[in-house]
Every structure is written in C-alpha cells, then in structure tokens.
Amino acid sequence: MKVTHVEHIGIAVRNLEDAIAWYENVLGLKCYAVEEVPAQSVRTAFFKAGQTKIELLESTAPDGPIGKFIAKRGEGIHHVAYGVEGLEAALDEAQTKGVELIDARPKKGAEGMETGFLHPRSTFGVLTELCEKP
Ligand code: ZN
Looking at residue 118, what is its pLDDT? Predict the structure, then answer.
C-alpha cells in the first residue's frame, strides 16, 4: 500500500471543551473544527500541528467505541491515522497479509474522509486507521 503521511493522531478525552481549552492555552494550537460523527458515537475537535492533525474524541454514548475505550483504559492516545492512496485496495492488501480488519470496507469519518480501521491485535497494540480524502 502507499502511505503518504501521518494524517492525524486520535486522542480520547472525557470532556471535549476542557481538552480544547488545554490544547489552545498550553500548546497554543487553534481548534479549527468541532464535528459530531454519529456513526462512531463521537464528537471530535481538530487542531493542526504543522502537517499533522490532532483529533480529540469525546464519546456521545457509553457503549460507543470511545466510551468503551475510556471505561477500560482511561483517557489517552486512541489511534494513529495514516493517509493512503487507494483506501479500498489498502484494506484488501492488509487483509491479504493477515491483518485483522475492523472495517473491511471504507466508512465515512470526520472531515469527509473515508476511513478503515485495523485491529490493534494485528498491529502491535496500536489501533491503526487508514484514511483517504475522496
Ligand atoms: Zn481518526
């Protein structure tokens, strides 16, 4: 597959407003978008740090992926997202190479991105997102 860059790092937080204030006041980054993604039961906030984005994720449902993650492991780094050229082919290739997929087909993510997740069991413990701007 062809990875072009680290698209963003996803960080699970309990309270999006508190976390936005911290990133703005301490790191001096500017939140440029807040978006709810109902399909993933999350509210997201985005920052740019140079070429790489930081995606803060707050759960909107206790049984959603971020709600479950925080209940089990607390706040912290949730996933690393790589930009790829040809997401469907990249997911197929990962599967062919024995990687366990969470999403066999691309799904709609924040910022109009198509995304697919690889299971941390197959990726040395890091939930890995592949994404592409359609
Ligand atoms: Zn993400």
Answer: 97
Domain range holding 8? 2-132
- Report how far ligand 1's centroid is from the alpha carbon of 32 (Å): 16
Ion ligand 1 — residues with CB < 5 Å: 10, 55, 81, 129
Question: What is the number of domains present in the chain?
Answer: 1
Stated as kind and residue range, the H or E segment containing 93 is helix 87-96
Q: Where are the beta strands (DSSP E) in the chain?
A: 2-13, 33-37, 42-49, 52-59, 76-85, 107-108, 114-118, 128-132
| pLDDT confidence tier of residue 124, bands split at 50, 70 and 90 | very high
